[in-house]
Write a structure and sequence with these properties.
- This protein is α/β, with parallel strands linked by helices and about 325 residues long.
- About 45% of the residues lie in helices and about 15% in strands.
C-alpha cells in the first residue's frame, strides 16, 4: 500500500496539516520543519497524488502539449524544451497527439472542459476557422506554436520559414547551382507553404527557371521524399540539386538516389530543412536549415507559465525564433 500523509506526520512527529502545508510549499512552514517532512516523505518513498492535490487547490499544475504526430523526430526537441521548462517551474507536462482519430479542435475542447490541465501549448500546422473559434472561447491559458506568425491575435511562437528557405536558395545559387527542384510539404501546413513561397521568390529574384515537373508535393514523410525523387530521376532532364522542405523527405531522397548507385552530391545534391538529429549523421551529412525546436518549446512554456501564474498579463506576444543554415556535405 502506498504511504500516506498520516504516516509521514507520525514519522516526522508533526500534524497532518503541517505535512500538507510543507509538501505544498507553504512559506509559513519553517525550513527546519519542511526538511523534516521531506526527509520523512523520502524515507517512506511517498509520491504525491498530483490530481488529488490539484483538485483540492482548484488549480492544475499540468501543462498540456498538443502535437499533430508525436512519432515525428521533429517534435521530440519541442517536447523536451516544454518538459524541461515546465519541470523547472514546478509543472508537469502531458503530451497529446491530435493525429488520425482526434482532431485539434477535439483536443482543445477536451483540455478546456475536463479541468486536468492548467494551460496548454498547441502546435497548429494550419489555422482554420474551427480551430480559431475553439481557441476564442478558451477556458484556460494557451500558447500557439505555428509556422504562421499571423495566426490570429494569440500568443504565438514561430520561426521564419520564408526567409530561411529564401536564404537556402541563395546559398545554392551562390554555389553555382542553376537547376533546382523543390519537394514541398502538405498543402494544409503553413510551414510548408511559407518554405515553398521562399523557394519560389528566391528563384524568381535570381532568374532561376522553375520547371513545373521539378515542383513536387510531399507530406513531410521519408516515403513521400523517396516517391518524389524517383519521379525526378526517371526524367531525362534532371535538376542539379533538390531542396526538400524538411529533413525527413531529404533523407527519403537519399534512399532512392543511393539505391540507384548514384552519389550525393556528385550526381545530384540534396538539402533539407529542420536539422533533426539524424541529419548530422547521414552519409553524406545533410546541408539543411536549423530550426531551434528546443528553444521554441522552452519559450512557449515560459510564456504559458507566465499566463498560468498571472505574472504577465500583457497583450498577445509574437515570438519569432531565428533559424540558420547548417552547411555540410550533401551539396
Amino acid at each position: 500500500m502506498a504511504p500516506t500523509i498520516k504516516q509521514i506526520a507520525k514519522l516526522a512527529n508533526v500534524s497532518i496539516a503541517t505535512v500538507s502545508r510543507a509538501l505544498s510549499g507553504d512559506e509559513k512552514v519553517t525550513s527546519e520543519t519542511k526538511q523534516l517532512v521531506l526527509n520523512a516523505a523520502s524515507e517512506l518513498n511517498y509520491r504525491p497524488n498530483i490530481l488529488a492535490r490539484n483538485f483540492v487547490k482548484g488549480k492544475s499544475n499540468i501543462v498540456g502539449l498538443i502535437l499533430p504526430d508525436i512519432s515525428d523526430e521533429f517534435f521530440s526537441e519541442i517536447i523536451r524544451g516544454v518538459d524541461e521548462t515546465s519541470y523547472d517551474h514546478g509543472y508537469y507536462t502531458m503530451v497529446i497527439s491530435s493525429h488520425k482519430n482526434r482532431s485539434l479542435v477535439e483536443s482543445v475542447h477536451t483540455l478546456m472542459s475536463n479541468g486536468l490541465v492548467g494551460g496548454f501549448i498547441i502546435l497548429i500546422p494550419f489555422m482554420d476557422q474551427k480551430i480559431e473559434a475553439a481557441l476564442m472561447h478558451e477556458g484556460v491559458p494557451f500558447v500557439i506554436i505555428s509556422g504562421d506568425n499571423n495566426a490570429g491575435e494569440f500568443d504565438t511562437v514561430t520561426t521564419n520559414n520564408y526567409q530561411s528557405a529564401f536564404k537556402m536558395v541563395e546559398f545554392l545559387v551562390n554555389k553555382g547551382y542553376k537547376k533546382i527542384a523543390h519537394i514541398s510539404g502538405p498543402a494544409d501546413n503553413n510551414d510548408a507553404l511559407l518554405r515553398k513561397k521562399g523557394f519560389l521568390d528566391a528563384c524568381s529574384k535570381h532568374k532561376i527557371e522553375i520547371k513545373n515537373n521539378w515542383l513536387l508535393d510531399g507530406n513531410f514523410t521519408m516515403e513521400s521524399g523517396e516517391l518524389a525523387i524517383n519521379k525526378i530521376l526517371n526524367e531525362d532532364d534532371k535538376p542539379e540539386v533538390i531542396f526538400a522542405a524538411n529533413d525527413m523527405m531529404a533523407l527519403g531522397c537519399y534512399n532512392a538516389i543511393q539505391s540507384r548507385g548514384l552519389k550525393i552530391p556528385d550526381d545530384i545534391a540534396i538539402t533539407g530543412f529542420d536539422d533533426i538529429l539524424i541529419s548530422k549523421y547521414a552519409n553524406p551529412s545533410l546541408t539543411t536549415v536549423k530550426v531551434n525546436t528546443d528553444r521554441i518549446g522552452k519559450l512557449a512554456a515560459e510564456r504559458l507559465i507566465e499566463k498560468m501564474d498571472g505574472t504577465n498579463n500583457k497583450t498577445a506576444q509574437k515570438i519569432e525564433i531565428e533559424s540558420e543554415l547548417v552547411i555540410r556535405n550533401s551539396c
